[in-house]
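FORM 7B: Structural annotation worksheet

SECTION A. Query
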Amino acid sequence: MHRYRSHTCGALRESNIGETTRLSGWVHRVRDHGGVLFIDLRDHYGLTQCVVDPDSPAFSQAEKLRSEFVVRMDGKVRRRPEGTDNDDLPTGKIEIYVSEIEVLGPAGDLPLPVFGDQEYPEDIRLKYRFLDLRREKLHQNIMTRVEIIKSMRRRMEGQGFFEFNTPILTASSPEGARDFLVPSRIHPGKFYALPQAPQQYKQLLMMSGFDRYFQIAPCFRDEDPRADRLPGEFYQLDVEMSFVTQDDVFAAMEPVITGVFEEFAKGKPVTKGWRRIPFAEALRKYGSDKPDLRNPIEMQDVSEHFRGSGFKVFARMLEDPKNQVWAIPAPGGGSRAFCDRMNSWAQGEGQPGLGYIMWREGGEGAGPLANNIGPERTAAIRAQINVKEGDAAFFVAGDPDKFWKFSGLARNKVGEELNLTDKERFELAWIVDFPMYEYNDEDKKVDFSHNPFSMPQGGLDALKGQDPLTIKAFQYDITCNGYEIASGGIRNHVPGAMVKAFEIAGYGEQEVVDRFGGMYRAFQYGAPPHGGMAAGVDRIVMLLCGTNNLREISLFPMNQQAMDLLMGAPSEATTKQLRELHVRVNLPQK
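SECTION B. Predicted structure
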C-alpha cells in the first residue's frame, strides 16, 4: 500500500465497502458521541467520516487529535448505520472504521477557525492566508477560478487564437497609472518597469505577423486602493487580432465571454445578443459608463417641463443652455416615507437634496415640485417618463458633466430599495464610441480619455480638423451587472496619425519616438490594421463566484494598504542590496 494513501478523502463509495483503505488529510473536526469518536478527515478532494471506538487500537491516539492535525488513517470501509447517511457528501453513505493512526503534522492553537464560514477580521485572514484557503468556500472559489481560466483558454483556442507570453521586465509607458519600477544593477541609474498591460508587445506581435494572440496576462499598477481592483497586480485575458474591424472583434469575443458566463452561471440567465450602447447614451440613460442593466430604470431629460416654471431653482438653472434636468423614474416608490428616505440619502452623498414628485390615486402629482410647477406640467412629465399611480420620480439638475455620476448612484439606489434590480441574472453589453480625449482640469490640458493607442473615428482627418473633445474613438468596454469587465479598441497603426494623436495630448514627436520607439519603428515597415481587448479575469471570477470582494477569489492578495501580511512585503532592502543597485533611499520627513 502507498506510504500515505490508497484513496483521496473524496473517492470512496458504496462499491468500496469491505475494502481496507489508507487516507491522509487534515482533521476537519472531531465529535465525541458517547465515547465513540467521529473524525471528519479532509483533503483537497473531499471529506470522509472516520470512526474510532474504545475497542480500536487507534483509540488512544485518536483522543489526542485536534482540528487541523495532518494524519494518516488506516481502516476498513463500511456502510453507515441506517438513518445516518449524509446526502450532501459524495462519501456520505460510507465511513471508515479506523485501526491505525499516524500523526504526520501536529497543529498548534488556530488563529482562525477552518471549520465553518463565519466572518473573521481581514488582517488575520490575510496574515494566515494558508489557513484561510483551507476554508471550504474560499477553496471552492479558487478552484472555480482555475476552471474559468481553463474555459477561457479552451474557447480562445477554439476561435483560432494562439497563446504567447510577453516580457515582465519592460520600459515605462503612460498607460494611465503609475508604474512599478525595478532598478537595474547592470545599468546604474536606469530602471525597468513592470507592465501595466502587454499593450505594446501584443501590437508588436501583430506587426510580426502572428495574426491572433491571447494571454492570461499579469498586469502591475502602482495605484491607490480601489474597491474593484486588487492593489499591485491583477490578471487579464489579453487579446489582439490583425485585419479586423470593431465588428470582427465583437464577433470573436462575444461568444467566448458569453460561453464562460453560461458555463459557470449555475443556471442564472446570461444575455443573448449583447446591446451596443454609445458612451454618451449610457451616461444619459444610466448615469454610468458601466451600467447595471438588471435595473430597468432609464433616466430622461425633462428640462422642457421645468423651463420657465414656478420652480425657480430649476428654472434659473435652465437659463444656462448647458444645464439640464433629468428624471429618475421610481416604479412603486410613490410614498412619502420612501421619497424622504431618498432625500436623506442624497444629503448623505453631499447633495443639497433630491427633488421628487409622487403620483397618487387619480393620477395627481404630489410633493413640493408638483405644487410649484402645477398639474399640467406634472401630467406632461408623467406622460413622458411613463409612470403610473403609486409611482414617483426623482430629479437631478445642473451641468450633466458634473452630475451624471450622482444621478447614476441615485438610479442604482432606487433600483435596490424598490427591489427592481434582478440579482439572479448576468446582463452583458458593449459600451461603444468613447471620446478620444477629455479635458484634464488639474493640468489644464487635453488628455487621452481611455487608451492612447486607439484609432480615432475619422482617422488623421479628424485629428487635424475636428475639436479634439468631439472626436470619438474606436474604443469599447464590456460591462456586466455594473462592472467594467473588459476594455479594448481598434489601434491607431498609421505613424502620422499616432504622432498627431499624441501631439494633441501634449507629447512631441521626439517624445513619442523616445517612449514608444519599438512600436513607432514597427509602424514604418508594414503595419496591418489591428485591434483587441483585455478582459479582467479577477472581476469575471468575482461575479461568477457571487462575491463583491476580489480577495475572496485570489490566492495571496494584499490588503487595502497594498501590504502582503503573509510574506511581509513591501520590506526594507539591505544596505548591500541598495549599494549593488546604486540606489539611495530618500524617505519623506515625518
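SECTION C. Observations
Residues 32 and 162 are 56 Å apart (CA to CA). Residues 136-158 form the longest helix (23 residues).

SECTION D. Sign-off
Analyst initials: ____
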